[in-house]
Amino acid sequence: AGVRVSAGSDGFMDYFPLSARSIIRELALMTELGVSPGEAIAIATGETADLLGLQDMGTLVPGKRADLLVVDGDPLADIMALERPWLVMLDGRLVRTPGDCGAADFAWGPR
Predict the structure, then answer these.
(1) Are 100 and 12 in contact (CB under 8 A)?
(2) Strands 93-96 and 85-90
(3) In the chain, % of residues over pLDDT 90
(4) Could you give the CA distance from residue 111 to residue 109 in angstroms, rounded to a whole number?
(5) What is the rounded CA–CA span in Å between residue 15 and residue 81?
(6) 16 pLDDT more than 60
(7) Are 67 and 90 contacting, i.e. CB atoms less than 8 angstroms apart?
(8) CA distance 111 to 100
(9) pLDDT at 41 over 50
(10) What pLDDT is attached to residue 19?
(11) What DSSP line would sit under 19-74, residue for residue?
């Protein structure tokens, strides 16, 4: 009790590139260990941002960056719905729209 949990890798980017797929797999592993999908998403967003001291991101509230992932499905019922991006916004800018999102080539950030 009292240990803070975060999501992500501290590995070298050349050795273990951070992608949406790796984060989603990490969240799926959390749920296999008993963390609810909602808790896993909160860990990967708000909790990790807070742990890293990133006050302008991590939750969707006025005054913070507008980073948003909209998926096809309900990630609270099936965490793997996160692999089906429908729309992505980074800092309030639309970077992926319906039709150009796909799990096969999906990675964080603009193309």
Answers:
(1) no
(2) antiparallel
(3) 36
(4) 7
(5) 26
(6) no
(7) yes
(8) 10
(9) yes
(10) 67
(11) -HHHHHHHHHHHHHTT--HHHHHHIIIIIHHHHTT-TTSSS--TTS---EEEESS-
